[in-house]
Design brief:
This protein is of the alpha+beta class. The protein has helices spanning 3-80, 89-108, 116-158, 164-167, 170-183, 238-244, 249-305, 308-312, 314-345, 358-375, 395-411, 446-449, 473-483; strands spanning 191-196, 201-204, 216-221, 229-234, 354-357, 379-384, 390-393, 420-426, 432-438, 487-493, 497-505. 61% of the residues lie in helices and 13% in strands. Strands 6-8-9-11-10 form a five-stranded mixed sheet, covered by helices on one side. It has a four-stranded antiparallel sheet with strand order 2-1-4-3, covered by helices on one side. Helix 2 (89-108) packs antiparallel against helix 3. The chain starts with a helix and ends with a strand.
């Protein structure tokens, strides 16, 4: 698949996931806002009902205090008047009864033509009594209205003088507010306090901290009377109520994020695999070319050995033997590179663990490597101080590890001075074998030393073009050391040299 197609699919999927996450977050935010507004509306309605209830109780309190005055006034007025008090149904029934009785009397009485003056007087008397009764009822109404006005004025005048704890009783507020909230569907604990208009705290329930929060709701009590109070209510579990209705969308949001992470990981792995595939392809092409050269040289040398004249010349035989030996080593080196490549694909199948003497293997590698070091005018020292050097490793891979580290020391030598290599072993920790390989080469920069064990990573060597490779050597070393249950670290100072330390568990 082309990179352009991968990038196109990546862009489309990224836009899709981004839009999906955006809409989910917007829906979640709108649901939370709507739920919060619904909660606030219910609380304010319940607080308003509580304030109205307290005002009714205060009005009832003043009416009960003045009831004795009203009753005594009514009794005194009843002594002066023969009718009832107020515009009650009893008074109206009494008036209707008197009128109906008089009408009945007039209707039942036989008319007398001998006494017309007496009948006219009787009618005038009834009308006069009716007018007097109307005046009496009007006076009773005005008197009662005046008494009620007195009560209202006393409420407006004396309400502010009552103690705040009597006006707003904590038990009454808690019980009535709880009933209102439960009837509205809010069954959750709450704390409240009562303050005056200046914000001074009068009393508060346990758990009310008074800190300004969005979950605190306030309601003015007795706003139309003197010295109004303020009721403050907070809900510690408000967020639980608000998010209870949107809880179902959180798992979908999490699953979307998981899908996004998996998608990003898949894309990264696709690009990485494509890069590895390209590198492997180049590696195979280069390796094929590198293998053809020594094979053709060995083939040519073999053909020359078949010539009788060449076999008679000892110098020619020695020269051809040297060529075959060099090309064989070169071919072996290329095969080791292929072997290193296969380790990353299937390390378990190519590793055969066995008990080995690390000192003996290291000594063998050093002996064969001396010629290469001396070719550049350098030296290699070996100090095998480890008394116990038995480790469980694959002998071939362990040999390659030591060879790769020594070969890197020669590759990255300082051109201005002869290379000097030092390899040592010790048992500083009685349970492990420590192997140190040091050189006086060009060293490694701090920004590179953290990545030198990454696969296909190569340190920049400036204008030097004689250092060839594919960035697999140190990655292979680290991979095999970890398979041997060991560890490897690198220490370096740029321009002075490097030291690699391998630690392996002893048998």
């Amino acid at each position: 698949m082309k990179k352009s197609i991968i990038w196109l699919l990546t862009g489309v999927m990224a836009i899709t996931f981004g839009a999906l996450l955006y809409f989910q977050i917007m829906y979640l935010e709108n649901m939370v806002k709507m739920r919060d507004a619904q909660f606030s509306e219910i609380v304010h309605r319940c607080l308003g009902a509580t304030g109205a209830y307290l005002e009714k109780r205060e009005t009832m309190h003043f009416l009960q205090e003045d009831i004795a005055v009203l009753e005594s006034s009514i009794l005194e007025f009843d002594n002066e008047s023969s009718s009832g008090y107020g515009l009650s149904s009893a008074v109206i029934d009494s008036i209707n009864g008197v009128l109906s009785q008089q009408t009945k009397e007039l209707g039942l009485k036989e008319p007398s033509f001998d006494a017309p003056i007496s009948r006219q007087r009787q009618i005038d008397n009834i009308q006069s009594r009716y007018r007097n009764m109307q005046q009496t009822l009007r006076g009773q109404y005005l008197y009662q209205k005046g008494l009620l006005n007195e009560v209202i004025l006393s409420i407006l005048r004396d309400a502010g003088q009552r103690p705040p704890k009597e006006r707003a009783d904590s038990v009454i507020i808690r019980d009535y507010l709880r009933n209102e909230l439960e009837s509205s569907g809010l069954t959750m604990p709450f704390n409240f306090s009562v303050t005056n208009t200046r914000g001074q705290l009068i009393y508060y329930t346990m758990g009310f901290d008074g800190a300004p929060k969005q979950s605190i709701y306030s309601q003015t009590l007795f706003p139309n009377t003197g010295s109004p109070l303020r009721l403050n209510v907070e809900f510690p579990q408000k967020n639980r109520f608000v998010f209870s209705s949107v809880r179902f969308i959180i798992p979908t949001l999490i699953f979307t994020l998981i899908l996004l992470i998996v998608f990003l990981y898949t894309i990264i792995m696709a690009f990485r695999q494509k890069k590895l595939s390209e590198i492997k392809t180049d590696f195979i092409h280069n390796m094929t070319h590198e293998l053809k050269t020594p094979i053709s040289t060995i083939s040519l040398a073999s053909q020359m050995l078949n010539d009788a004249s060449v076999r008679k010349s000892e110098s020619s035989l020695n020269r051809l033997a040297g060529v075959i030996s060099d090309e064989t080593k070169r071919l072996q080196f290329q095969v080791e590179k292929v072997l290193q490549m296969s380790v990353f694909d299937n390390s378990d199948s190519s590793v055969k663990m066995a008990e080995c003497d690390a000192n003996a293997i290291i000594q063998t590698v050093v002996d064969t490597f001396k010629i290469k070091v001396e070719k550049f005018g350098g030296t290699i020292s070996c100090r095998l101080d480890a008394e116990n050097s038995l480790v469980m490793v694959d002998q071939m891979h362990f040999t390659n590890i030591i060879h790769n580290l020594l070969d890197n020391a020669i590759k990255y030598r300082d051109e201005d001075r002869a290379p000097h290599l030092m390899i040592s072993t010790d048992n500083t920790n009685k349970k492990t074998l420590r192997i140190k390989i040091s050189d006086n080469g060009i060293g490694i920069k701090k920004e590179d030393i953290k990545r030198i064990f990454d696969k296909f990573y190569r340190v920049h060597t400036g204008n030097r073009h004689d250092v060839k490779g594919f960035g697999l050597g140190l990655a292979y070393v680290k991979k095999m050391v970890e398979i041997f249950n060991g560890s490897i670290t690198a220490e370096s100072e740029f321009g002075k040299g490097s030291t690699f330390i391998i630690t392996l568990p002893l048998i």
